[in-house]
């Protein structure tokens, strides 16, 4: 008799369990939770599957039999976890929300034996202006103004004797953020000099550039491109990499602007090092030349930027 009071409760419980509304409610809870989990897992899986199409291996620095030292170039890897977190809210894959991380090569330019550099990595959509300065003061201001207009930096390789005679101009170029390089002291034929003479030309120029501008240079550009293996080794012993070029404006021949621009644009390539001087031809052509390079989606940077392993990234998330 004492347990008879449980009967109504058991009957009520059975009615609730079998109630159509209860069944609908429970089913609704399941439908709300399971697809969400499946959808999230599906998005994560989609990112994992598509990641490989956005990734590339890093490229090691190497010595090319023709082009000598070629710098390395970073690879790309998708950060799956962070990419998923950025896409999770919208619940769908978006290329713009991929988080890409750069991966480093195993062999770096600094680890190669001393060798001249003629160009940057062929996959890097960037070029560098090498402006050798031993004369042409009257055209420097216009060239600097053009570079400033386009918010670009170039690498000015200065003759030591020129720096000694034009300290204000040398300091002005450095203060505007351009890279400073060593172009020997007296513009000799470096390939004809003894080891001791070559060392004096390079070390003396390093010293006067640092005294005048406060800059410790990293690169050496031999006059007229003249060098021998010993020259490159002596430069390396002074802490400098040797820089040549792959595209020549031949601006000392006083070409027209159209001729100079055509010379560059018909030969320019990813990683090009473009040789120029402070001449009227270059000063008159520089603005149009930069615009032409922009049309080709080639960034203009310094030698250090060109030869760095950093990638030139598209408009996509990066780390």
Supply database-style keywords:
6-stranded parallel sheet, two-stranded antiparallel ribbon, 11 helices, alpha/beta, 319 residues, disordered N terminus
Describe this structure in words.
The chain is 44% helix and 13% strand. The longest helix is centred in the first third of the chain and has 32 residues, at 20-51. The protein is α/β, with parallel strands linked by helices and 319 residues long. The chain has helices spanning 6-18, 20-51, 80-87, 137-149, 160-165, 167-175, 195-213, 229-237, 257-265, 280-295, 303-307; strands at 62-64, 68-70, 75-78, 100-103, 126-133, 155-158, 179-182, 219-220, 241-242, 247-248, 273-276, 299-301. Residues 1-7, 15-22 and 24-38 have low confidence and may be disordered. The chain is globular. Strands 5, 6, 7, 10, 11 and 12 form a six-stranded parallel sheet that branches. β10 (247-248), α9 (257-265) and β11 (273-276) form a beta-alpha-beta unit. It contains eleven helices and twelve strands.
